[in-house]
């Protein structure tokens, strides 16, 4: 990771993929059946390339944060704690963006910004969990203890949150695709994604995740420089 | 195993010696439910169910919060050296689960007395109440350990815990709905098993993570 931070290729890849997402996402023809014939999605369906990948990249970023929290507990190096914090922070920001883009979309297709859909609830819970993580961090002043307690909470919360987003959609009906009846799908309604959309969607997921990582590493480098300045 | 039993005995003894905390929680339960009764009288079953579990949540935060806060730093170190962190957290989990089951049953009794009895299938509901009290206490016991480490009280526990407890509460509401009428819930036992699996997960996480929390 240390070496990768200063590499350029993945940053360029991120820009290229996001440019591709914006251009292709706004231009490609939408599948007639899902966008026009059987639903009221119409052109708003293009939000799919922005809203859903934001969620995916939030998951990626909080997973990276989890990874560094575990690493911190195994080997208490303050750098790992900074990594875990910054990735959790960017993940939370992307979560907020996902929630906002989702609500705007919901307002157009479902008629209201918030409809207690299990996935909306799951999203809100994720935000609450990570805000609690930052509250917990800031409630302690001792650096060493703060890092350790925060890492423990991060791991505990993550392993409860993941089963939660797998369980919640199965308990109630969801307005999201694949959420009719009891077969609520925690991810996408797999079959509703056609081949051309998939060609934009997965690059978009990678692009947004890389952008999130990039932002995190920038904040990270600032934090590390600050640390260096304080210790010098 | 011997350590765990000894530690639970110690908690029990403390509870008997300092009865004010035990009665304090009982009074908390009684007064909350009394206020609810004054505010709602006898609500319909869905509201009854929702209120019941929400009250359980608050009782749990209050009943469990003290379990780590009452131990002083020095005493912690002592337990740590004689029994080890794993035994210690297991004994706390077991003790709090027992405590919370008693509290849940007491509050069920009070609910029956004051808020009416919409239950069609009381025996099943009692089973769910025991399971529910147990599930809630497990999560909050571990969060109490975290909050105690951060030298914070019940407020931080609630902030950390309420988002995390949602799956348990939703599962509990879903299964206890079946105790109010003769409806057949598809996959009821699946839901119960899911809740038990979540409990096992929480215990496993607590046992794995607790030693890191208390290492100084």
Automatic annotation (TrEMBL), chain A:
Q: Tell me the ranges covered by the Cytochrome c assembly protein domain, including all copies.
A: 13-170
**What membrane topology does the UniProt entry give?**
Multi-pass membrane protein
Report the subcellular localization.
Answer: Membrane
Keyword Transmembrane helix set for record:
yes
| Keyword annotations | Cytochrome c-type biogenesis, Membrane, Transmembrane, Transmembrane helix
Which residue windows are transmembrane per the record? 12-32, 52-70, 91-108, 120-136, 148-168, 200-220
Role description: Required for the export of heme to the periplasm for the biogenesis of c-type cytochromes.
* Protein family: Belongs to the CcmC/CycZ/HelC family.
From the Swiss-Prot or TrEMBL record, give the protein name: Heme exporter protein C
Species? Niastella soli
Automatic annotation (TrEMBL), chain B:
Q: What is this protein called?
A: Heme exporter protein CcmB
Record Pfam families: CcmB
- What family is reported? Belongs to the CcmB/CycW/HelB family.
Note the topology in the membrane: Multi-pass membrane protein
What are the protein's UniProt keywords? Answer: Membrane, Transmembrane, Transmembrane helix
Give the primary localization class. membrane
Task: Tell me where the transmembrane regions lie.
Answer: 20-39, 51-69, 89-113, 125-147, 154-175, 187-214
Q: What is the lineage of its organism?
A: Bacteria, Pseudomonadati, Bacteroidota, Chitinophagia, Chitinophagales
What InterPro entries does the record point to?
Cyt_c_biogenesis_CcmB
Give the superkingdom in one word: Bacteria
Subcellular location per UniProt equals:
Membrane
């Amino acid at each position: 990771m240390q070496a990768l931070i200063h590499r350029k290729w993945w940053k360029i890849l991120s820009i290229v993929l996001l440019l591709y997402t914006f251009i292709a996402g706004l231009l490609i023809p939408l599948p007639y059946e899902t966008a026009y014939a059987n639903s009221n999605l119409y052109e708003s369906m293009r939000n799919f390339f922005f809203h859903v990948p934001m969620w995916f990249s939030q998951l990626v970023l909080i997973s990276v944060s989890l990874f560094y929290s575990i690493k911190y507990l195994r080997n208490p190096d303050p750098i790992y704690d900074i990594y875990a914090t910054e990735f959790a922070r960017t993940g939370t920001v992307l979560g907020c963006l996902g929630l906002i883009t989702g609500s705007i979309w919901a307002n157009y297709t479902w008629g209201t910004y918030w409809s207690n859909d299990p996935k909306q609830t799951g999203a809100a819970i994720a935000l609450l969990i990570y805000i609690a993580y930052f509250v917990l961090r800031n409630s302690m002043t001792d650096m060493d203890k703060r890092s350790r307690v925060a890492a423990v909470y991060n791991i505990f919360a993550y392993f409860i949150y993941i089963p939660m987003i797998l369980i919640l959609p199965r308990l109630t009906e969801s307005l999201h695709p694949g959420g009719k009846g009891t077969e609520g799908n925690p991810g996408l309604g797999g079959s509703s994604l056609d081949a051309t959309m998939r060609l934009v969607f997965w690059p978009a997921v990678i692009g947004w995740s890389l952008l999130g990582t990039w932002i995190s590493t920038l904040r990270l480098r600032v934090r590390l420089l600050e640390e260096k300045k304080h210790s010098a | 195993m011997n350590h765990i039993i000894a530690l639970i005995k110690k908690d029990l003894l403390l509870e008997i010696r300092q009865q004010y905390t035990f009665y304090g929680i009982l009074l908390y339960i009684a007064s909350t439910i009394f206020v609810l009764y004054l505010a709602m009288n006898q609500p319909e079953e869905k509201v009854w169910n929702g209120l019941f579990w929400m009250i359980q949540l608050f009782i749990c935060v209050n009943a469990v919060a003290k379990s780590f806060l009452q131990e002083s730093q020095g005493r912690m170190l002592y337990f740590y050296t004689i029994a080890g962190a794993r035994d210690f957290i297991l004994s706390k989990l077991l003790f709090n689960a027992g405590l919370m089951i008693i509290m849940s049953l007491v509050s069920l009794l009070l609910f029956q007395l004051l808020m009416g009895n919409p239950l069609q299938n009381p025996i099943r509901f009692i089973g769910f109440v025991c399971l529910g009290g147990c599930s809630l206490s497990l999560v909050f016991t571990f969060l109490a350990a975290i909050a105690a480490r951060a030298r914070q009280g019940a407020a931080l526990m609630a902030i950390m815990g309420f988002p995390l407890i949602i799956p348990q509460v939703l599962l509990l509401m879903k299964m206890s709905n079946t105790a109010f009428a003769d409806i057949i819930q598809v996959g009821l036992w699946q839901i119960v098993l899911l809740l038990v699996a979540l409990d096992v997960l929480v215990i496993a996480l607590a046992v794995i993570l607790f030693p890191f929390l208390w290492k100084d």
